[in-house]
Amino acid sequence: MLISGLPGLLSPGRRSPGLLVLVLPGGTDSSHQPFSPWQPSALRMYPFTWSLRVRFGRSVRVHQVGYRVYGWNGDENSPMLPARAALDDICRRHPGVPVVAIGHSMGGRVAAHLAADRRVIGVLGLAPWWQFADWRHIQPGARVVAVHGDADTRTLAKRTRKGIDELSALGVDAEFVPVPGGGHAMLDHIGLWQRSALDFVGERLSALRGA
């Protein structure tokens, strides 16, 4: 489910983009509460979505994904069905254009699972919830960057670093970016968190243009 009704967020434009970006909000471990585009986890990601659109204009298409419910819910993997539908939808509208996934917390977990698909060439995890070694879903051709604060008590930076180290050992282009004193909600070091997304998308776009 793509969030609609937000002016300028999903305007299709006419020029073929060079890159597609899925922005994936966080959630929680277990909850069947309906997902709202106005809840804090969604609101937290709009500045990333908007800043990417402003910086890159028609060179990218940025879609912030909404889920049906707020939780992951164990084996139900609740966010994955709408996230995969969003991936299929943007790829259908822009055939052949590669995708990067940017996710915070549970959204970082969703991003890792989406990146089993070779259409996804990059994953940016922002304080990602990789509790269950979710990085192992990422296909080896993807570029992976994980940004994590060392003061985060909701998801653990040491777990994220372990994932990046494992990916790197397998030859994946993976990088860990520490945020000293950074918490889970990304309300500190705001420039660093925002810049990480802008730099990641810019880097992927430049790499594609130079290929």
From TrEMBL:
Ranges for the Alpha/beta hydrolase fold-5 domain?
A: 64-191
Q: From the Swiss-Prot or TrEMBL record, what is one GO molecular function term?
A: hydrolase activity
Q: Which UniProt keywords apply?
A: Hydrolase
User: The organism sits in which domain of life?
Assistant: Bacteria
Q: Work out whether the entry's keyword set contains Hydrolase.
A: yes
Name the record gives this protein: Alpha/beta hydrolase
User: Mind giving the lineage of the organism this protein is from?
Assistant: Bacteria, Bacillati, Actinomycetota, Actinomycetes, Mycobacteriales
